[in-house]
Amino acid sequence: MRFQTASAVNIAAALVMAFAVGTALMWISGYDPLSSYSAMLITPLSDWVYFLSALAFSAPMALTGLTFSLGLRAGLFNIGAEGQVYMGALGAVAAAYLLGGPAVLPLAFAMGLILAVLWSSVPAVLKIWRGVNEVISTIMMNWVAYWVTIMAVSTAFANPLQPEESVKVPEPARLTPLVPGTDFTAAVPIAYAAAFLVLIFLKYSVWGYRISVSGYNPIAAKSYGIKPERAVLVAFALGSVTAGLAGVLQVVARPPSYSLARNLANVYGLGFDGITAAMLGRGHPVGVVLASIFLGIMQEGARHMQIEAGTPYEFVKVIQGLIILFLALQLLRK
C-alpha cells in the first residue's frame, strides 16, 4: 500500500511540475494558460462525441504502452514500438493491395503482426547473441522501418487516385465507427482487451512469471532454472504483437481514410506516446490504459485548444515530454 501511495504521489508530482512548466512556457510565448488548459482538459469531457474521440486516440497509445511495459518487466528499455507500428500498418496496407473484399481484414491482421514480430526479432537476437544494447538497436530499427514504409507507400502501395496516401482498405473489410458520427471503432475495445490479456499473462502464466523474475534479477532466475535469454525473446515478441496491432488498427479501424498517409502522419509518434503512457501507468497494464485515456483526452483537447485559445497544437507534445522528463528524474533519484 505504501508503494502504491508513493507511486501515486510521484505521478501527481510529475504532472503538476509538467503543467507548471507548461504554464510558464505558454505565458512567455504570449498564450493564455488558463483558457488553453480548459480547452485541453475540460472541453473533451463536455461532450460525449469529444470523449469518444479521446478514447479513439487512447487505443494505439495503450497498445504501444504495453510494448514498453513488457520490455520493462523483462529488464529491457525497448523503444522499438515505433518501428513495429509502422510494420503493422505496412502489413495492413499490403493486404489491401493484394486482396479485395472482407478477406482483407484477417490478412491485414496476419501480415501486420507477422511483420512486427519479425522486425522485433532483430534487436532481440542481437541482444541475446551479441549483447547489443536494445536502446541503440531499436532506435536504428525504427528509422529503417520509417524509410522502408515511406518508400513502400510512395511506390508499390501508392493510391493512384490520391497520391498523398496508400491504397485504401476496401469498405467490406473496414472496422467502422460503433457510434455513428464519432471515431469510436472496435479498435478501442480491442486495445483494452489486449491490456487485460497482458495482465492475465503476466500475473498467472508461467512465462509471465519467468519474464518478471528475469527482469528483476537474471542471476536469481538462472538459479531457479529460468533462462533469461528466452524471457527476453518472449517479451520482445509479445510486445511487438501489441505494437503491430496498433499499426494494423490505425489502417483498418481509423476513419475517415482507412489508409496509411504518405508521410505516415496517422502512425508517426505512436510508439513514443506509448512510452509516456507506460511511465505514467507505472508499467501496469491497467495503469497503462488509464494513462492512455488521460493522454487521449489531451490529444483530443489539443484540437480544441488550437481553435478556442489559439494555442499551438504542439504544446501538448511539450507537456508530454515534460511528463517523461520529470518521471525519469524521479527514477534517477532512486
TrEMBL record:
UniProt membrane topology term: Multi-pass membrane protein
Residues annotated as transmembrane: 7-28, 48-72, 84-101, 107-126, 138-158, 178-202, 231-253, 315-332
GO molecular function: transmembrane transporter activity
Signal peptide residue numbers: none
Subcellular location: Cell membrane
Keywords: Cell membrane, Membrane, Transmembrane, Transmembrane helix
Highest taxon of source: Archaea
Alphabetical list of InterPro entries matching this protein: ABC_transp_permease (IPR001851)
A GO cellular-component term linked to this record: plasma membrane
Pfam family, one: BPD_transp_2
Stated name of the protein: ABC-type uncharacterized transport system, permease component
Source organism of the structure: Pyrobaculum oguniense (strain DSM 13380 / JCM 10595 / TE7)
Lineage, broadest ranks: Archaea, Thermoproteota, Thermoprotei, Thermoproteales, Thermoproteaceae
